[in-house]
Amino acid sequence: MDTVKKYIATHKDRFINELIQLLKIPSISADTAYSQDVLNTADVIMKALTDAGCDNVELCETPGYPIVYGEKIIDPKLPTVLVYGHYDVQPADPIDLWDSPPFEPVIKNTDIHPEGAIFARGACDDKGQMYMHVKALEYMTSTGNLPCNVKFMIEGEEEVGSESLAWFVPRNVDKLANDVILISDTGMIANDIPSITTGLRGLSYVEVEVTGPNRDLHSGLYGGAVANPINILTKMISSLHDDDNHITIPGFYDNVEELSKEEREEMAKAPFSLKAYKDALAINDVYGERGYSTNERNSIRPTLDVNGIWGGYTGEGAKTVIPSKAYAKISMRLVPNQDWEDITELFKNHFESIAPNGVTVKVTPHHGGQGYVTPINNIAYQAASKAYEETFDVTPIPQRSGGSIPIVSLFEKELKSKTILMGFGLNSDAIHSPNEHFGVWNYLKGIETIPYFYKYFTELS
Ligand code: BES
Ligand code: MN
Ligand code: MN
After folding, report:
1. Are 327 and 454 within one domain?
2. If you ran DSSP here, which 8-state letter would residue 11 be given?
3. Which pLDDT tens digit goes with each residue over 226-257?
4. Which of 5, 138, 163, 184 is 20 to 30 A from 262 in CA distance terms?
5. Are residues 277 and 317 in the same domain?
6. Which of ligand 1's atoms lies nearest the C-alpha of 406?
7. Dist CA 456 CA 461 (whole Å)
């Protein structure tokens, strides 16, 4: 299979160009102003799958955005890999902070990506990483190197909670039958320290509304005599953490799995520079739950964070006012065994119970999902590990991630299969942030590594 290197060398300009065309379409699932672009992107993926050698490519309608499906079944007796990815992207704002327009991709060199990186919304999350699989398939089908069956399922609502996919999967269990699910929608430690993601955190996302007086009031005439919803909301929010940065919601930690001393020691072996971490974020110190390291805080521990807070007057100059209402969006990242619906309920009950007289509180749950962990003593993990050894010349490190792909636990429940998370992005690629990018080297390395996963998974099956 040294032919994969040659194939990439011959076709790399086209591979890069095809991704650039895909990145030009603003497929923002959160904003209905872009719904035609989201639909157009699905059409482009359909064509790409067909060109890469997929059969039975179809647009599967759902209550929301369609799911693109395609397959190449070479022999029903051979194992089947189901590839999942998403063609939708995050909104681009704050747009002013981009150095070049988010949907006009450009290649620029950076310190971390001396061979260039493609700057565009979705470059890494997830168009670039998803498209690696399409190009890896093209290589395998056009050179006679596809060793097993493959199915593709690419959705358009991952960034808004995968509701339509959660509807689609239980209705298509036979169609989606597989031996392993393969996803590139996570990251790795560094280009010379590859890692395989063995865990994802769950999520509960809620919005809260605190209401005081029935209208905005003069802050002189009424100030001091009625509850100010912003004062109250911020006080309630700060009470959700204690001085050790533990979360104070009763029952919140009940099902949290405590890792053994050995497991924590193993985790601590992953290369990590606190100085580089702080420098990259321009912070003078890290902050978090007492008793846990930075890597533990952002992977094996649950969290509660305010994502946005608003109310009152925020325009130019000063306006003296006590607002009638204050709002916040709050996310809780969860670890395996914490049930996201239970946690949402615990939050709601607690938040309502701490509201003082003089205000009313409304808690509205948004989306959520379970966390996920995968053991490393199975053939799918071993196949992935061998694939990286082949192309990176080192054994990848298993690592739990702090991010969430809630649909992965649903796959396990409905399709009874494990997911392998082969991510080729870096934390510095700025996913969800301005100036998102994906290294050209990473893109091509992914295309090179994926066919080895198919080879070893088939051999070990
Ligand atoms: N690809 C990310 C998740 C991710 C990134 C996991 C890097 C691990 C490492 C995905 O597109 C995402 O952004 N997920 C959301 C959750 C979703 C329900 C909106 C997240 O983690 O905030
Ligand atoms: Mn993603
Ligand atoms: Mn994302």
Report:
1. no
2. H
3. 999 999 999 999 999 999 999 999 999 999 98
4. 184
5. no
6. 18
7. 8
